[in-house]
C-alpha cells in the first residue's frame, strides 16, 4: 500500500452543517488550525433543508418576548426532560448568534422598522423565528460557508496561504475516532472519491454529524443522516442520552413515492394551513391534550381569529407541538379517515390568495409543483408523519459541549443530546446548532490550551485501517442495499411512531440478525467513488444507532414527546427524573438509567406551579419549593 | 481539442446529446432577421413611396434631406441632396443608424444574434464551433457598452414617431379630427416602440436599477417595479415592435405607391 | 410487477478521466418517480458501484447535477413522465468539468472562484443587532441567495464549457450573482465591486446568451437581474464619461 496520507491539526470538525461550520469559525477565531470534514460537497449539508426559521427571542415582532419565555417554551415542548442548562444557554444566546450572522452577510426577511422579521411557529408563544422565506437553512449554511471563505481570505492576506488555518476536506468519511491514553488523538477515514485512507492527528475532535433519519424508511433526512457521529462517539467510549426520542415531523409528503417523507414546512400551518381528514373535518380540535387546553383554541371561529389577532385568541390546534400533531395524523389514518395515499389533507389554498402563498411559501409551492405536479394554491396537499430529527444524542457538558467520558471529544447540533428533551420545537434546531456549535469550538479551544498534543500510535492506525477495509476483504457476502432496506423497514414497523414492548423486543432480535449479516456484507467494484462500499461502512453506524433507539425505547415505560408506547400511553413523572444512557460494550449496547439534574430555583420560578404539577412529582416540587 | 472535448472531460464524441429541436430557434431567428434586413435595405435605398400625406414611413421619419416631400420633414431639411456616383443618397440612411444601433446593442438582440448568427453558442449545451472566445471584452464588441446612448437616441425617435402618429389624425388636406387605418398603423407602431424602449434593460437600470436603497427613492422604486414587469417581456416587445416598423412601412408604401387607398373611418 | 411499474431504457455514461462510454441498461420505473430514483434502482440492482452524487433529493442542495438528454439538470427534479413512452434517456456527467468517475465530476473550479470574490464587508460602526434594512432593499440580493450551488449555470456557460482556457479569467454566472448580491446589499461597504467584476472576474466575457438562466433550477433570473444590471453598473463606472465625471466630482461610486 502506498504511503498513508497524514494531516495534523488542532481541531478536526466532523460535519460541515451549521453546527460544524459554527464550531470551525469559533476555533479558528481562537487562533487554532482547523480541519472541516464533510461527507458530501462543501455547502450541501442537511442544514439546507431547514425551512421555517431560527428561534431567537429578539422580540422584534412582539416585544414581550425574552429568553425566559423562550426557555419556558423549550422546556414545555421537551416535556421537561431537557437538560435545563442547555435550554437556558440556548434561550439566552440565540439572539446574539442570529445578529452575528447578519454581520457575516445573511439577509433575513425584515420588519417595517428594518429589523429581522420573526414568524409564529408551533410551540412558541410569540413570533420568534427569524427566517428567509422558507429557505432559512440554506441562508444559514451559505452565510457560514461564506464566513469560512472570508476567514480563509484573511489568512491568505496574513499568511500567504488561504488554507493555513482552515481547510475543508470535502467528500471524506471518518470511520473512527482515535484515542491514546484515554484521550482523543485524531480521526481516521477515507476519501470517497478515491477510497484512499487518511489520518488526521488532532487532540480535539468536534462531532457535528447531524441525524439518524436514514435508519427509517420514511424520513426527511438525506443519505448523510446515518448516525455516524452517534456511532463514532459510542465506539470512542462516549454515551448517548435519550435515544428513544425520535421526532416524527407531522407533515411529510406522502406522494409521489419517490419523495415520500420529504418535509412540508410547519410555516404552512403557521401561515394559515389547516389539517382535514377524508370527511373534510378539521380533526385537530379532537386532539388537544389536557396540558395545552388553555393555550389552544377549541373551536374553529377562535382559531381563525387568531391569525388576525394573536393577543385575544388562543392559537389553532394545528400549531400544537410536532409530536402531538404527528400522533393525531397517525390516528386519523389508522381510523380509516386518511387521504388516498395514506396521509391527511393540509390545505392553504382556501385560506390565502395564490400570490400570497407564492410569496410566503415559495419553496413549498415549487416543491409540490415540480415534484408532485400539485399546485398548492389550488388544491390541498397530502401529508403524513416522517422521521425528521433525533432528540437523543451524545451526552455533553452544556457549557463546553464536551462529550462526557471522552476527553478531547466535543459534540454540537443534532448529534448532541439533552437540549430538546423528549421533543424539539420547530426553529430550535437552527438556534441550537449556532449556540452549541460556537460553544463546541470554544470548548475545544480551551481544552487544547490546557492539554496540548496527543500523537497517534501506529497500532491505532493499523487497527482503524483493518476495520475500514473489511467490506472489501469479505467473501460471498450480501449486497448492502438489501440489508439497508430491511433495516429501514424494521425501524419503521417496530421502532416507529407508535411502539409496544413486544415489537421493540422483536426489533432488537431482528437488529442482531442484521448485524451479523452486515459483518459479511461485501462491497463490489473498486475503491474509487463506490457507493456500495460507502453504504457498507454507514450500515454499521445505522445498526448501532437503531439498537440504542430500540433498547432505550424498550426501557422507558411511558409515553412522552417523541416516544409513544401503546402499552404505556400516559406520561409518568417518575420517568421524567431519568435519562436513558446508551453505552457500547464492544459487542452490544447497554442502556442504563441516570438521574436528570434538577431545575434550579430561579428557573423553576419561571413556571406556574399548576403547570409544573403536570410534569414533576410532588417530592420534586417540595424539594425545590421547600414545601410550597 | 478544447471545450467539451478537452482531455479532462468525460469522453463523449457528440458535440451535444440534446434530443430536442435545439436548432429550430436559431434558425427562425436567422430567417426572420435576414428577411427584415433584406426588406429594410431595399426600402432604404428605394428612396421613394415613403410619404403620403399625412402618413410617413418610420424608415424615413424625420426626413432630413431637401429631397424630401413637403410635410415629411418634421425637423426641417438640414442636409442637401447628396449623390455618390450619380446615386442620390436616400434620406432613410441619415437616420437608420440610430434605431439600428439601438437594436444591435440591445441585450436581447445580442443574445439572439450571438446564438443564431455567431453560433456562440447555437443553443445551451451545444458546443460552439469557435476555437477562441473573448466575449465583449475587446473591440469591436466592447462598444456594446454604449447601448445607453442608442437608448436615449431611440427615445428621441419614439417622440418623433409619436408626433407622426398624432399628425396622422388629419386628412390628406391637413384638417384635424380624422381617423384612418394609417392612423392606427402609426399609432400601434409608436406604442410598440415605446414598449420596447420602456422594457429595455438600460431603461430599467436608469430608472432605478442603479440605486442601492430603493426605500429612499419610493417613486423611482415604483417605476422600477413597472419597468421590471415590462422588462420580463422585452424579447416579445423586441420582436413585435420590429414587425410593427416593417408593417407600418409596408402600409405607407402601399398607400404612397397608390396600390391601396388609406381608408378613413371618419 | 404492479400496474404502476414499467421498464425504461437508460444510457448511462460510465468511465473515468482516462476513458468511458455510454452503457445501455433497462430498469423498472414507477409512477411519480424522477430520474434520480431510477438511477438509484440501477445502482441497487445492476451497478452497485455506479458513482453518483446526491443529497436531499428535493432540489434544495444542488448535488445531483448531471446532463440528461444533453441538458444540464438536477436528476431529482427531472420527472420520468416528461419523457416519451419508450424513449431512451441519456445520462452523462457535467461536461464542463473534469470527470472523476461515472456521473461524478470535479467541481473544485467553483470553490476556487468563490475564494476570489471578496466577502461581505459590513459597516464597522454598527454592532450586531444594530443592522436596519428595509425589505425592499434586501429583496434583490435575496433572490441571488436562493442559489443552491448546483453549478448547472457554470456547466452550461459556453465561455468555460467550450473554452477551457477561459477558466482562469472567468468567474461564471454563479459568481456574478454573488457579486451582484453584494453590490446590491444595502450595507456592504466595499465599493470597487463593479470595477473588479469587469477587470478581474470576467464580466465582459459574458455575451448574455442566457443559458445560465435557462438551466437554473431555482429560477433565479441570473441574466436579467444580476448580469445585465452589473454590466450597466460597470458602464456607469467605466464607459460612461458623463457619469464618470459626476462620480469624480461627488467622489463616490454610484448613488445610494
From TrEMBL, chain A:
InterPro entries, per database record: FAD-dep_OxRdtase_2_FAD-bd, FAD/NAD-bd_sf, Fum_R/Succ_DH_flav-like_C_sf, Fum_Rdtase/Succ_DH_flav-like_C, SdhA/FrdA/AprA, Succ_DH/fumarate_Rdtase_cat_sf
Cofactor(s) the record lists: FAD
Keyword list, A-Z: FAD, Flavoprotein, Oxidoreductase
A single GO molecular function term of this UniProt record: oxidoreductase activity
Annotated Fumarate reductase/succinate dehydrogenase flavoprotein-like C-terminal domain residues: 484-581
FAD-dependent oxidoreductase 2 FAD-binding domain sequence ranges: 10-430
PANTHER family in UniProt: SUCCINATE DEHYDROGENASE 2 FLAVOPROTEIN SUBUNIT, SUCCINATE DEHYDROGENASE [UBIQUINONE] FLAVOPROTEIN SUBUNIT, MITOCHONDRIAL
Protein name: Unannotated protein
From TrEMBL, chain B:
Segments passing through the bilayer: 22-42, 79-102, 149-169, 175-196
Record keywords: Membrane, Transmembrane, Transmembrane helix
Keyword flag Transmembrane helix: yes
KW Membrane (keyword) present: yes
Stated name of the protein: Unannotated protein
Record organism: freshwater metagenome
Automatic annotation (TrEMBL), chain C:
GO cellular component: plasma membrane
Any one GO BP annotation for this protein: tricarboxylic acid cycle
Protein name from the UniProt record: Unannotated protein
Record keywords, A-Z: 2Fe-2S, 4Fe-4S, Iron, Iron-sulfur, Metal-binding, Oxidoreductase
Pfam families associated with the record: Fer2_3, Fer4_8
Tagged with keyword Iron: yes
Pathway participation: Carbohydrate metabolism; tricarboxylic acid cycle
Organism: freshwater metagenome
